[in-house]
Design brief:
single chain; mainly alpha
């Protein structure tokens, strides 16, 4: 699964997105902003996995996809 997420982020970067964001999260932001690609991608992804785009954006915002020590960097001092 990590390899698929890495590939997803890599493709997102190739098409001009942020390097640590998935296409699904970017599509959710696009949908929110009324962009055609966001509506199109989220419609398809949400059909396969309900609420996929919104869940991806929540994961990015909450940093829940990261290891615990990276979620709240101020709470974990550097060694």
């Amino acid at each position: 699964m990590n390899l698929l997420i890495g590939l997803d982020q890599w493709v997102n970067t190739l098409i001009g997105g942020a390097p640590d964001e998935t296409i699904s999260s970017r599509a959710a932001r696009g949908k929110r902003d009324g962009r055609w690609y966001g509506r199109f991608l989220c419609r398809g992804l949400d059909w396969l996995d309900p609420n996929h785009c919104d869940d991806a954006l929540k994961s990015e915002r909450g940093r829940t996809h990261l290891p615990e020590e990276f979620r709240n960097p101020n709470e974990h001092p550097k060694p």
